[in-house]
Structures are given as C-alpha cells and as structure tokens.
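Journal club side-thread
Mid-discussion, someone asked how the predicted structure for our own chain would compare to the paper's figures. Pasting it here so we can look after the session.
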Amino acid sequence: MGKADFFFDQMLKENSVQGRTKTTAHHWGLFAASGLLMVTMPAYIYVSPMFDIPVLEGASQFLGVGLLGGMLLSWAYRSVSLQRQINWLATTPPPKANEKVAKKEREEAMAAHEKKAADVCCAYALCTVNISFVLLWLLTAFYALPKFSTDVSSKLNHLLSVLGPSLLLAFKATAAF
C-alpha cells in the first residue's frame, strides 16, 4: 500500500460516521465513576446481616471486584454509546448547509451536532447498561445462585453475582458494536 492509498484511507475513515465518533475524556470519567458506583453498591447488601460479610475481611474482595467490574461496565457504556452515536449520526441529518454561511460556521454547527449526539448517547448508554446490570445482579444473586446451590458462600455469591453481569454486559456490548 502506497502513501497515497494510506492517506486516502485515513481521510475516508476520518470523514465517515465512525471516524467522527469519539469517546471524550469527560465521557470516560463519567463512565468510570458510574461503573464504579454501580458495582460497589451491592457491597452494602453483602455487609448487611443478610449475607454477613465483615467489612474488614471482605474489603480486599470488594475493592478488587469493584475495580474490575467498574472497568468492565465502563467498556460496556462506551460500546453502547458509540454504537448509538453511529446510528444517530447516520440517520439524523446534519444541520442545514446554507451557501451564504461560511465554511467555519458550518463546521462549528456540525461539531455542535456531533457533541449533542455524543451527550445524548452517553446518557442512553448509562441508563440502559445500569438497568441491565441491576436486573442481572438481582437475578444472579437472589435467584440463580441460590437455586443452583444453597451452600454458595456469601463471598462467592458476591464475586459471581457482580462480575458475572459486568462481564456479560461488556462482552455483549462489544459484540453488538
């Protein structure tokens, strides 16, 4: 592949819908904070008398599961957001281009349109992945694992019921993308 072909491919990629969709640092921070919050919330139930895991004894597990599950959910948020953003930009017409408007103003309008799409799709990803995680966590922790075996320890229940849905959502979102 020559230099001209490489630059032509790069130009096509940058000007395509997929080339224009990016995950900003702001969205990554939002995804990380939300993912960490979602996977650490079940820890409150696991330290309650229902599961009775001592806080100090389970702290390392809560931290490890929280960090790994948070990273997995962040990846799921990103994948869902980008997929939705690509669909949005492909189906929603860009701002009307007026011949009297300067090229710079048209580019600014297009950038604002893409930023709005990114923000809306970020909110959509947060809502859908969070709802899916909570439902899968409840199903796993209180139905599937107790039905599988009544002798599942609280620590193993926590590990499987938090990381299982996180892993499933990350892989499902990536496969759909």
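Post-session note: The CA atoms of residues 33 and 138 lie 21 Å apart.
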